[in-house]
Amino acid sequence: MALQCGMGMSKQEAGSKGGRETVRRYGREWMKELGKRGLRSTANKYFAGSVDECMSYLRKKAAELQIVALADQEGMTCVEVPVLLSPDDDPYFEEKSWQDRVTKSKSQSRKR
User: Fold this and answer.
1) In a domain, 22, yes or no
2) How far apart are CA 42 and CA 66, in angstroms?
3) How many domains are there within the chain?
4) Which residues span the domain enclosing 23?
5) Which residue in 36, 53, 58, 64 could disulfide with 47, CB within 3.0 to 4.6 Å?
6) Contact 51, 39 (CB under 8 A)
7) What does the alpha-carbon distance between residue 2 and residue 19 come to, in Å, rounded to a whole number?
8) Considering the chain, what is the average pLDDT of its residues?
9) Which of 10, 16, 72 has its CA nearest to residue 2?
């Protein structure tokens, strides 16, 4: 379901239109450099400067999102989604209580 953004245009359509206009004004090379700077900034902020680790994360995240989108497209209400990113590998994962539960359950199962 697309979110509407006034005048009958969805947010996706508005973003796409704005992106095309930006490319028209500044050109592909400018957009390419902008993307590189954004990637470097993200790598510096979340991956200790490693562009390779950042790209690996982005690929895994994209795969997870494709699986969810496919489930939505097929009208599935319940789907087993493989976890590609563990909480330790996801710099955006902030729910520490879940990480603590997983860590504790692993250490308790080893003691048995």
Assistant:
1) yes
2) 22
3) 1
4) 14-92
5) 53
6) yes
7) 18
8) 80
9) 10
In a domain, 28, yes or no: yes
Q: Which residues pair with 10 in a beta bridge?
A: 4
In sequence order, the 6+-apart residues with CB closer than 8 A to the CB of 68 are 81
The DSSP secondary-structure symbol of 2 reads P
pLDDT tens digits, 50-93: 999 999 999 989 888 888 888 888 887 666 766 667 767 776 66
Residue 69 within any structural domain of the chain: yes
Residue 3 counted as domain residue: no
Q: For the segment 100-111, what is each residue's pLDDT rounded down to a tens digit?
A: 656 665 555 444
pLDDT tens by residue, 21-61: 999 999 999 999 999 999 999 999 999 999 999 999 999 89
Give residue 8's pLDDT band: very low, low, confident or very high (50, 70, 90): confident
Phi, psi of 21 (to 5 degrees): -65, -40
Residue 66 token pair: 């494709």
In a 3-state reduction of DSSP, which class is residue 10? strand
- In the structure encoding, which two tokens stand for residue 3, read together? 């979110």
